[in-house]
């Protein structure tokens, strides 16, 4: 896939900010803001796919609680699992 990196970053930023719950808006937008400029195109695509998961499972995953779904292990999920809101 051929993407314009800036458009992809804007899409990711938007998706991380407007989640539906204020808690996940804060957690995910902060996470994305901290890492987005350090990611390559493949990692950005993985991040966009990761953001399509539902809030409940993303929160559980971040907190180390068993999720209702299987979440692929990759560099993005590893970073998110370790991420703590500042």
- The end-to-end distance, rounded to whole angstroms, is 34 Å
Give the amount of beta strand, in percent: under 5%
Number of helices: 5
- Residue runs with pLDDT of under 50 for 5 or more positions: none
Number of strands: 0
Helix content: 55-70%
Sheet/helix structural class? mainly alpha
Radius of gyration: 12 Å
The average pLDDT score comes to 94
* Mass-distribution shape: globular
Order of helices and strands: HHHHH
Characterization of this structure:
The chain has 86 residues and is an all-alpha fold. It is 63% helix and 0% strand. The chain contains five helices and no strands. It has helices spanning 5-17, 22-35, 41-50, 55-63, 75-82. Helix 1 (5-17) runs antiparallel to helix 2 (22-35) and helix 1 (5-17) runs parallel beside helix 3 (41-50). The longest helix is centred in the N-terminal third of the chain and has 14 residues, at 22-35. It is globular, with a radius of gyration of 12 Å. The model has no long low-confidence stretch (mean pLDDT 94).
């Amino acid at each position: 896939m051929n993407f314009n990196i800036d458009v992809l970053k804007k899409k990711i930023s938007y998706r991380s900010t407007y989640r539906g719950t204020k808690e996940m808006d804060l957690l995910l937008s902060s996470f994305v803001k901290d890492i987005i400029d350090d990611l390559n195109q493949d990692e950005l695509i993985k991040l966009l796919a990761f953001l399509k998961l539902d809030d409940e499972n993303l929160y559980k995953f971040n907190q180390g609680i068993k999720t209702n779904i299987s979440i692929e292990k990759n560099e993005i999920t590893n970073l998110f699992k370790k991420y703590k809101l500042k």
